[in-house]
Structures are given as C-alpha cells and as structure tokens.
Amino acid sequence: MSRKYFGTDGIRGRVNAGVMTPEMALRVGLAAGRYFMGDADVHRVVIGKDTRRSGYMFEQALSAGLVAAGMEVYQVGPMPTPAVAMLTRSMRADLGVMLSASHNPHYDNGIKFFGPDGFKLSDAVEIEIERRMDSDLDQYLQESENLGRFSRIRDVAGRYIEYAKGTIPQGMSFDGMKIVLDCANGAAYSVAPIVLAELGAEVIPIGVSPNGININANCGSTAPEAMCNRVKAEGADLGIALDGDADRLIMCDENGEVVDGDQIMALITRKWRDRGILKGDGLVATVMSNLGLERMLEGEGLRLVRTNVGDRHVVEHMRTHGYNVGGEQSGHIVLTDYVTTGDGLIAGLQVMCELLDSGKKASEVTNQFESVPQLLKNVSFNVPDPLAISEVRDAIEEGEGALGNTGRLLIRKSGTEPLMRVMAEGDDAALVERVVTDICKSIEAVA
C-alpha cells in the first residue's frame, strides 16, 4: 500500500510545505493517540524533540491532537531519539514521539513514533494511523471531562545520562582519554558531554551551541571535517560526531581519518564474539553496507544479513532472528542488549571501551577491514518510475554484467525525495565509477 505521510523513518519533510505542517501534526496526534489508548486509566505519551526552531510549533500542535484524544502528554524538551525510546518504556507510556529530521538541515522536521515497548512502529500500524488521519477525525474527539493534559518534566536528562553510563562495565574509567565530541548543535548537546566527562574522559565539545537553525550545519556526522580537524589540532585519542537527534554517529581516529558505521559494527561484532555475548551468527545491516565488511565476516565464520535501508528494518530482523548487533553504514548502530533503536553515544562508548581494554590507538582498533571502492550518486527525476523505462533497465543490466561477481549494484528510490539513489561497489574503482555514471546518465535522459 502506498504511503501518504510515513516514509522510511516516520513522517519527514520541509517545514510548512507538503505534509509537514501544524495541521498534519494535530491530525496525526489525534489519530495515533486514539490508536494507542490502552485499557489503563491513564494514557501517557512522551514527546521529545531536537533543537530545530520549528520543534516548538510541532510540539504544541501534536500535543493538542493527543490531548484531544485523551492522552496525558509529557514534554521532555531537547533529548536524543534513543532517550525518548528509553523513557517511553521507563515511564510505562503508551506512545513515544520524537520531533526531528535527524541529519537533515533545520528547514526540515519530522515525527518518529515509538510503541510502548520502545521500538519503532510496524508498517501495519503506520498504515492504520494514516487511514485514521484521513477519516472523519471528529469520531476520535473526547468529551470535555475525558480530555488529557500536558506538562513538562524536568528530570529526564539525568535518567538518560545514568542509563548511558550503565552500558559500560562497572568501575571502568576513561581517565586520561581525550575525546572530541561533536553534538551537531542537536538533541545531545547537553547530555552527551556530561556522560563522557562523568566517565572520566577529557571532553572537547563542539557543536554544542544550538540556536534553532544551526543544527547539522557544517558539523555533526554528516560534516565530520570539523571533528577530524579538531582531533588533529588537540592531539585527541578519538573523535565522535553525532547527528541532529543523536541516533547515529561517525567517528575518526587520532589521525583524523573517518571511521564509518560499517567499521564500528565490525569492531563491536568481533569484540562481543570474543567476549561470548554476541547473539546470532553475525550482524544485521542494510544493502548499503560495504562488500568488504561482508567478506571480512565470512572469513571469520560470521554472517552479514542485509535488509532494506532504514534502521527500522534492521531492528525488525534483529528481533525476529535473535541478533543483538546491527545498524547502517551511515552510523545507526543498534545494540539491542541496551537500546531499541540507534544510539550514537552508546555505540561510541563501546568503541572507547575497546581502546581502553586493548591499550591500542584508535587507528589500530577501528580499521577492521579493507573497504571495497563504493560510489553513490543521487539523480532527480520527474516521471512516475524511471526503473520502468527500457533505456534505464538496459543500462542497469549492462552495469550488472560489467561488475559480474567482483562487485554489486543497488538502485533504489529515496523514501523522502524525488531522487534515485544509484550505488555500485567492486574491486575496480574505475569500473564502479563508469557503471554509476552510465546509469545516472540514462535516468537523466528520460526523467
């Protein structure tokens, strides 16, 4: 079934354009609120947000819909997405909501939902909420005496700080370790530096001065250059760059060399395997993960299971098949022993633990495998389905034939924009570039 509102990660778009309007937020609040009304006397929902200026607007509109549905709304202000998921479970809430467009610029925003178990909603639930949003919403309005209320709770930062610290062994200290921490002027700007400092690290914070419009602006996981340069300038041991809602990270070693999600997952998988706590026969990642990761795991008797793009798909497979390490190349790292969604800070703590345990430099620990040359290009289109056009299909078939058994080709539509994402990887970098370029040109010619 086609979606009108929900994409690969909740509802997301340009603020006050398309679907991302206050009116939509009110409607989804009313529809989701009534869907998640349980049998308990009190129906709770936790709402967090990142630091975008538009968060104030959507917070109030969404709260109005939820209160009209009879929900008790608890607003927690700027908090990381994984903290909202954790609080949803901790507070026995019926629903958790995060207002964020993740790594996107400030002019976008989004709405992510978590069920009472702290996990993102299934496709079936999202489809049902969409159906209710476009129905007669008057049927979901409560009588005056049954309306909910909303309030702000102030102690949530401390709850998440203690929770994150509790994911490393009792008594472990990062004393003497110098860390550059880039919070992307986003949701973790206040809590993440405290976690690292209370665990003993010397923290050099950047991206911790949000003003409502500088989230992800030349900082954070999508612009790691600021982190890399600061690590080299300060002689730091490691760099950690979070995104706007802190559910993913990119790192760099002491030389300022970037470490992506694939390398982080490989490190944690090996570490947990050696400790005897790895569940499943490997890890779960998406179709975007590098072929080098797959080859490395196979060489050690482990398996890389690939899912569709989106950490929600990764988590669904992990839960169904009993894995406890998964994520995305982009830095969503899901460790289900601790969290129900990606958590950049907690993943970063696991890497710091390995530095401490091994006594090695970050460059020695984070270079887990040799990456295969990989290239991704985005091509805009304005026809219904470029992949249905024979010229495009011919170019794709030719590219697959050229790569043969030495590479891999992936072409997919963006879940949020009118873009085709064309990715190829293989042992021959020049061939990879030629294949991607030829396919992109075929799409541009017809779209």
At a glance:
By secondary structure, the chain is of the alpha/beta class. It has 14 helices and 19 strands.
Strand order, largest beta sheet? 1-2-6-5-3-4-7
**N-to-C terminal Cα separation, in Å?**
24 Å
Q: Class of the largest domain, according to the CATH hierarchy?
A: Alpha Beta
The total number of structural domains is 4
Contiguous uncertain segments of 5+ residues: none
Specify the helix fraction band.
25-40%
Rg result = 22 Å
Number of helices: 14
What structural class results from the helix and strand content? alpha/beta
Query: What form results from the Cα inertia axes?
Result: globular
Write up what this structure looks like:
- The chain is of the alpha/beta class and 447 residues long.
- It has 4 domains: 6-156, 3-Layer(aba) Sandwich (Alpha-D-Glucose-1,6-Bisphosphate, Chain A, domain 3); 175-258, Alpha-D-Glucose-1,6-Bisphosphate, Chain A, domain 3 (3-Layer(aba) Sandwich), CATH 3.40.120.10; 260-365, Alpha-D-Glucose-1,6-Bisphosphate, Chain A, domain 3 (3-Layer(aba) Sandwich); 374-446, Alpha-D-phosphohexomutase, C-terminal domain (TATA-Binding Protein), CATH 3.30.310.
- It is built from 14 helices and 19 strands.
- It has helices at residues 22-35, 54-68, 81-90, 123-133, 156-165, 191-198, 225-234, 261-275, 291-299, 311-321, 344-358, 362-365, 390-403, 429-446; strands at residues 6-7, 10-14, 44-49, 72-78, 95-99, 108-114, 150-152, 178-182, 202-206, 238-242, 249-252, 258-259, 282-286, 303-307, 326-327, 333-334, 374-380, 407-413, 419-426.
- The strands form 5 sheets. A 7-stranded mixed sheet has the order 1-2-6-5-3-4-7, sandwiched between helices. The chain has a 5-stranded mixed sheet with strand order 9-8-10-11-12, sandwiched between helices.
- The longest helix is centred in the C-terminal third of the chain and has 18 residues, at 429-446.
- The two termini are 24 Å apart.
